[in-house]
Amino acid sequence: MSEPILSISGLSKTYKGGVKALDDVQLDIRKGEIFALLGPNGAGKTTLIGAVCGLVRPTAGTISAFGHDLAIDWRAARARIGLVPQELSTDMFETVYRAVSYSRGLFGHPPDKARIEEVLRSLTLWEKKDSQIRELSGGMKRRVLIAKALAHEPELLFLDEPTAGVDVDLRKDMWKQIAALRERGTTIILTTHYIEEAEEMADRVGIIRKGQILMVDDKDAIMQRMGRTEAVIELSEPLAELPASIAEFPVELREDGQELCYRGGDGAGGGREDVARLTKALIAAGIDYRGIDIHDSSLEDIFVGLVSEQEAAQ
Ligand SMILES: Nc1ncnc2c1ncn2[C@@H]1O[C@H](COP(=O)(O)OP(=O)(O)OP(=O)(O)O)[C@@H](O)[C@H]1O
């Protein structure tokens, strides 16, 4: 792998009250990727972002970005890192246009009216450019946050729960914006509760819980390794036991022998092929069925499974 754009090593954070929000986190982010950090409430996602963006002082560990150790050379990296936080903390009396163009200047970029107009138009904020931020609806305020980050043109962009509580239209607009940013070469780390979002956007996924990274992998690899196909086959007549040609599949009889349940596969289509072979074997064994309900597990199922497994193990 080429030199990571962001490298986090042994990162821990214990807050004053004693809450251990991060516990020995190791994480390398590759240039140009979209990385989704998934975790339940209180897992430490915002703390991790805060540590990289200079808002939270780590208790231990090192963070380097673009080859600079942030504890030593914060300024060199700062202008290249952008953050879209969960909430707007800018001056509510500022107009949309000024807030967005100011953000660009703040990070040392020369004024660029065309760029600001493009950003505002792409987020349907152009008509509101002269409104004060306090006059906007919650969804519009979120758009301003995103516009500020886009105007800044960072190389590494953090999006903290970018679509929490926004409507479907804005979520779709944002997905488009994020895809366009990646096209420009921006590296993106997003935290999300919406697993659909990670599934849609991410190249890699990290799962965090209680301040620890449980797993990091390519999204497709996670799906393949942990993905499952489940098929419920409703039999025409109840079966007392399975013939050998059926029992060799990963199946079990349920509902007093009226249902045959298959669980297997690799999350990459293998399970569906297996179910097709299973149905042929049923026909060959003279077993009739009324219907099949088949589905592949999503990243959501995998995530819920992983987190509850960890809970059970404790
Ligand atoms: N300033 C603080 N002082 C004390 N404890 C804090 C502080 N900020 C966060 N915590 C605690 O640290 C833990 C991690 O919080 P964090 O906000 O990083 O989680 P998160 O994964 O972002 O959660 P969410 O999805 O709810 O935003 C939680 O137990 C939280 O209560």
UniProtKB/TrEMBL annotation:
GO molecular function: ATP binding; ATP hydrolysis activity
Record protein name field: ABC transporter ATP-binding protein
Keywords for the protein's UniProt record, in alphabetical order: ATP-binding, Nucleotide-binding, Transport
Domain of life: Bacteria
Residues annotated as domain ABC transporter: 6-235
InterPro entries xref list: AAA+_ATPase (IPR003593), ABC_transporter-like_ATP-bd (IPR003439), ABC_transporter-like_CS (IPR017871), ABC_transporter_ATP-binding (IPR050763)
Lineage: Bacteria, Pseudomonadati, Pseudomonadota, Alphaproteobacteria, Sphingomonadales
Keyword match Transport: yes
